[in-house]
Design brief:
With 93 residues, this protein is mainly alpha-helical. It is built from four helices and two strands, in the order H-E-E-H-H-H.
């Protein structure tokens, strides 16, 4: 990603209250905003950071569905809706 595009994306992400995480084609997190990291920390006991892989961020049971959605997105197709049941550090849903 060129520096200008990266800056635009970072500004969009940082100023957004919706949890947002962007991945590259290889499934590596390139950008995550505070809302996403806070949500993951609260419910899963970990945050999302650039450089983390998709498998480190999403629940293991849901990884194949997220991986397929990511591939569909990069192929230019809407990934559809993904429903994920998240278990917190205490094991609760």
């Amino acid at each position: 990603m060129d520096p200008r595009t990266r800056q635009i994306a970072e500004n969009f992400f940082s100023g957004n209250e919706t949890a947002l995480i962007a991945f590259d084609r290889g499934g590596t997190c390139v950008c995550a905003n505070a809302a996403a990291s806070g949500l993951l920390l609260r419910y899963m006991g970990r945050s999302a950071e650039p450089g983390m892989s998709l498998s480190e961020i999403v629940p293991p049971d849901d990884y194949p569905e997220f991986q397929n959605a990511l591939g569909s997105s990069f192929a230019g197709h809407p990934p559809g809706r993904i429903v994920s049941i998240v278990r917190g550090p205490d094991g609760g849903e």
